[in-house]
Amino acid sequence: MGRVADLAGVSVRTLHHYDEIGLVRPSTRTAGGYRAYSAGDVERLREVLAYRRLGFGLREVAELVGDSSTNAVAHLRRLRGLLLERRDRADAMVAAIDRELEARARGLKVTPEEQLGMLGARLYDAIGGAYPATRRTEPRIAAQIWDALGDARTVLNVGAGTGSYEPADREVTAVEPSEVMRRQRPAGSAPCMAAAAESLPFEDHSFDVAMAVSTVHHWGDPIAGLREMRRVARRVVVLTFDTDEPGWQDRFWLTRDYLPEFATVLAEFPSLAGMADAIGARAEPVPIPWDCADGLFEAYWRRPGAYLEEHVRRAMSVWTRVGPDAERRAVRSLRDDLDSGRWAERNSGLAHLDTADLGLRLLIA
Question: In the predicted model, is pLDDT for residue 9 greater than 70?
Fold first, then answer.
């Protein structure tokens, strides 16, 4: 089982769960009595994991792989069709964005009808479950979050957004106040209702664990939201940001040298110690890999050119919060320093680092 888990890129716990619910059961035993997978078992596991990574829920996957009229070739063709459909929908969104950018660059007025057709409700309906361009689950950060979930079976994801970091091997319920974000959740993902963190519509201790990933800074009352999570779940796991350390703004070259307004954005944000006290949590550092797949604000600490890209910045709420003037100044200064080599001189020590501690913290209660 351990060997299969390594090959498949999942945890042994996931395989145990699939065995327990009858989704993929190892059909053979080794001489020592350990569970082992036959070729047919591996084929079924491949199908299960492929459907899960396309966003299907466990019940839907069980129905798909349990269809006796569908063989391995049919599953492969179905998976290929789903992947092509997702690619086409993502391409349609990119094309729509490009059309509006071109129109705006030419000084043309974009009517409300055109905006809806390009980027609004109708386009979101068309693209279905396509994820935002740069905000994806980073596997190394996900592993730390999911490890903190422990043996929890029922998980509440608060401020769930489009569903990044939701564990595929647990029973997940999501809440997200933004209709735009809910629209972008992929088909087959966890059920998601409209609700705010500060007022969760669940009874006390309804879940084994409540999780919140890179969302607390968007809440109107973070402490109230955290206490609500503590009320409805036996344990709490929160990915957030540390502003307690003296000189924290200087940890990251972008806020140190180009965007000092970032400190103002977080001026009213609760301290890490205050958030931890509210739920009785301990804090763990979360290192950010140099090639982080999740385009969060600090993700490109070793890839500075990414911050010059409009589509990269638009996926980060910080830029909207600091305003267009600060954004234009920061981007212009960074571009100049990259062209002149000054950025490389200032930050030469980053070139050989694989990860960086830039204040990302995991609260575990």
Answer: yes
Query: Rounded to an integer, what distance in angstroms lies between the CA atom of residue 290 and that of residue 286?
Result: 13
Give the position of tokens 């109230």. 224
Confidence of residue 159 (pLDDT cuts 50, 70, 90): very high
Euclidean distance between CA atoms 218 and 283, whole angstroms: 20
Residue 307 is encoded by which pair of tokens? 């911050």
323 exposed, middle or buried (CB, 10 Å; 0-12, 13-18, 19+)?
Answer: exposed
Residue 213 backbone phi and psi in degrees, to 5: -120, 115
Instruction: Determine contact, residues 208/187, Cβ cutoff 8 Å.
Output: no
List the one residue out of 4, 355, 24 whose CA is nearest residue 169.
24
In this prediction, residue 301 carries a pLDDT of: 97
pTM summary value: 0.63
Q: Is the pLDDT of residue 195 over 60?
A: yes
Helix ranges (H only) for 21-168 are 39-53, 58-65, 72-105, 112-118, 121-127, 139-148
Alpha-carbon separation of residue 89 from 83, 85, 209 (angstroms): 10, 6, 34
The HSE-up count of residue 168 (CA atoms within 13 Å, CB side) is 23
Query: 273-309 burial, b if ≥16 CB within 10 A, otherwise e?
Result: eebbebbebebeebbbbbebbbbbbbbbbbebeebee
Q: How many CB atoms lie within 10 A of CB 100?
A: 16
- 3-state class of 21 per DSSP? coil
- β-bridge partners, 174: 157, 192
Task: Tell me the per-residue pLDDT of 252-261, one tens digit each, with 9 for 90 and over.
Answer: 999 999 999 9
DSSP 293: S
Helix (H) or strand (E) holding 193: strand 192-193
Tokens of 32: 């020592």
